[in-house]
Amino acid sequence: MSRRHIRIAVAVALVAIVAALIFWTTRPEPIEVRAETVEKGTVEQTVANTRAGTVEACRRAQLTPSVGGQVAALPVKEGDFVQTGQLLLELWNTDLKAQAELAAAESQASQASAQSACAQADAAAREAKRIARLRRDGLASEEQADQADTNASAKRSECKAAVARANVSIASVKVAAANLERTRLQAPFDGVVAEITAELNEFVTPSPVGVQIPPAIDLIDNTCFYVAAPIDEVDAPAIEVNMPARITLDAFGDREFKGRVRRIGDYVVDYEKQARTVDIEAEFLVPEDIVDLLAGYSADVEVLIDRRDDTLRIPTEALIDGERVYVINEKEDTAELREVKVGISNWSYTEVLEGLATGDRVVTSIDREGLVDGALVKVNEGNRGAP
Question: What is the CATH number of domain 48-58+225-307?
């Protein structure tokens, strides 16, 4: 090689080195991003409540006597398990008991009078028949027969009147018993006494119209619970009765309870004139799960709308406008904007139908400044969630 060729080669090499130095010193710094590998797995389409739901007892009775009065008996205390029909509270009712006894006695007397009157009516009817036979044989006068018939008719009327008075007295006994019953609170079902606001010897009154007064006794059936939760009106049409659901409660941390949608509200609730929701109810499927539950716990319900197993999926946070993702170009260390076709999704994963393949890596930190199609990137190999 001649000296001239050597000088040209050296010059070219120097130019290449200078150009490389200029390129490396002036090239933009790569953007540090998070990325995850596209893989197959399970994707579920779910709908969750918009605000915290509440654990409700299937049966709960807030009881107050229907009449006012002074508490004379309070045979139960908070936490007691009571059975159907058991006395929970009784107002002073000595006067009503006396009235009930009086009504019962008057009823007995009225019934006895009715029996006597009807017996006399039967005797008068028999006598009228006897006189009628004697009249046919010429042994009794027509006047005697008329008198016997008139007496029998009068006795029948007296019998009917006595029976009517007896029926009135029976009704009076029922009225007295009903008035007496209004002073007693009895358990309408088996349950636990959750709260008692009444005290012995104090006066209690029923709530007037439009005025809320705390119930004297709050009774809860602790053998059956469900969760009532509000669902956004946009998501509600996708929910059907008997759909599976996952229930979580703040009181139990990350523990999940198996559930099922048992009811969907019949109307939309206008909450604070902004958020419109539909209430749903989800029941617990495992009886053992409700042993430690308390009515009033806050709860969340996630209803399973659809499920795909062994399907291509990506983290939902990698999606841009629901149809594009940044894919890592491993050879050039750049982010390539690519359109994809997606299927069902949830907060964690989205099903990919077209546009990606197993092993591709997609950017999950799509909000990084300067991230555009073709931008230099550096993948942070740390755990998901790192910047």
Answer: 2.40.30.170
